[in-house]
Amino acid sequence: MHDIGERSNLARRLPKKAAELHGLLKRWRTSVNAVMPSPNPGYDAAKADQGLTGTEPQTEARP
Predict the structure, then answer these.
(1) Considering the entire predicted model, what is its pTM?
(2) Per-residue pLDDT reduced to its tens digit, 6-31
(3) Which candidate among 23, 41, 46, 50 keeps its CA 20 to 30 Å from the CA of 33?
(4) Phi, psi angles (nearest 5°) of residue 40
(5) Residue 23: which region, alpha, beta or left (left: phi > 0; alpha: psi -120 to 50)?
């Protein structure tokens, strides 16, 4: 499947594969003693979107 931009949620179309991969991830986390983050009690969803896009802002080229 060619979804380079990861725009399609394949977990809905391939639930067995999603479950298999999730199981592998859980076993790996256990094997490396991964510490998962806990929920942030101060998180406010209403304030979460501050215009951040996850991409670097474009800057003007300098001469």
Answers:
(1) 0.54
(2) 788 888 889 999 999 999 999 999 99
(3) 41
(4) -90, 110
(5) alpha
